[in-house]
Amino acid sequence: MSDLVELKTSLAQSGIDPDLGALLDCMAQACIEIADAVERGALSGTLGALDRANVQGETQKQLDVISNDLLVHALQNSGLACGIASEEEDHAVAIPGGAPYLVLFDPLDGSSNIDVNVTVGTIISVLPAPNSAPNDADFLQPGHRQLAAAYVAYGPSTLLVLTTGDGVKQFTLDRARGAFVLTGSALSVPKQTAEFAINAARQRHWLAPIAAYIRDCVAGETGPRGRDFNMRWIASMVADVHRIMTRGGVFLYPNDHAMIAEGMTGKLRLMYEANPMGWLVEQAGGAASTGEGRILDIVPSGLHQRVPVVLGSADEVAEVEARFAAP
Ligand code: AHG
Ligand code: MN
Ligand code: MN
């Protein structure tokens, strides 16, 4: 298939700023190195956890740190961005003299799955830089200001799914070429679905609207929805979202009574999980909500702020929002 379009060519033809294209290509190359590191896992002795936690208080896997460092070093050497925020960095990392882009990423998402050989990924968001020496506060921009959002899924194939505001494209890593090639030119999330994704083990903690929505889905054909639903939960957001980008579905990681009791505002991070995934889903015709409002309209208050997430097929997101709005 010699007529396949490589990522670099697709970016050049997309009409985006050439520096933004170069930045995205630079990160795609770093993700190919992450794919190699993830694939080698046990062969390199890099599976398993470190005896330290990140700013989130979560134990870091070796590959969390390896992936983070591959992206940070690639960006520092490229000069194609002037600031970095990462799940694995306490604070923003400034890049002196870099181009006016802020890059945010979850370098390895779903890393609890890495030791059991289940798909993991990288999530990327790009924002405009308000100045050339950014600090944490400069990153606190609402998701609708993103210039690019992408994820890479390290699964049976290594896939890059990307938007720069004109729909969503999918690229597959062709290892023979050492490049991502276009394999989907307009991903689209069906408005309707019969598949929900939630960690059902937290059922006893759910807020009433979430409990009502799931109860109605599980009631199936004889219940208020009048049709049967199926459930999937991979516990790797990139994998769950890619399924939804491919065949529809609704993904829920809501806040719940147990998390609220611990002062939490959800599990997933706004800046480098909810915002990029939310924009990708919206650009593919889906919706991304907290259950009570659009994720991309949230004005952030912290670099590692957590939010409730309900995203995917627009009609199902609306069903959840309707239950939050009900008296
Ligand atoms: P990360 O590995 O970057 O911390 O992200 C894990 C997230 C997300 O990928 C996934 O949807 C969710 O955590 C799974 O949470 P549970 O383990 O509670 O199911
Ligand atoms: Mn994650
Ligand atoms: Mn992570």
Task: Give a quick set of tags describing it.
327 residues; alpha+beta; D-Maltodextrin-Binding Protein, domain 2; 2 domains; eight-stranded mixed β-sheet; 17 strands; binds 2,5-anhydro-1,6-di-O-phosphono-D-glucitol; binds manganese (II) ion
Write structural notes for this entry.
The chain has 8 helices and 17 strands. It has helices spanning 7-13, 18-44, 62-78, 208-218, 237-247, 257-261, 270-283, 314-325; strands at residues 49-53, 59-61, 83-86, 93-94, 101-109, 120-128, 148-154, 158-163, 168-174, 179-184, 195-197, 230-231, 250-253, 268-269, 287-289, 306-307, 309-312. The chain has an 8-stranded mixed β-sheet with strand order 4-3-5-6-7-8-9-10, with helices on both faces. A 5-stranded mixed β-sheet has the order 12-11-13-17-15, with helices on both faces. The longest helix has 27 residues, at 18-44. It binds 2,5-anhydro-1,6-di-O-phosphono-D-glucitol (AHG) and manganese (II) ion (MN) (2 copies).
Can you list the strand order of the major beta sheet?
4-3-5-6-7-8-9-10
> How many individual helices?
8
Could you tell me the CATH topology label of the largest domain. Fructose-1,6-Bisphosphatase, Chain A, domain 1
Class by SSE composition: alpha+beta
Helicity, as a percent range: 25-40%
At CATH level 2, the architecture of the largest domain is 2-Layer Sandwich
User: What is the averaged pLDDT score?
Assistant: 96
- Secondary-structure element pattern, one letter each: HHEEHEEEEEEEEEHEHEHEHEEEH
**Would you count the extended β strands for me?**
17
Provide the domain count.
Answer: 2
Are any ligands bound, and if so which? 2,5-anhydro-1,6-di-O-phosphono-D-glucitol, manganese (II) ion
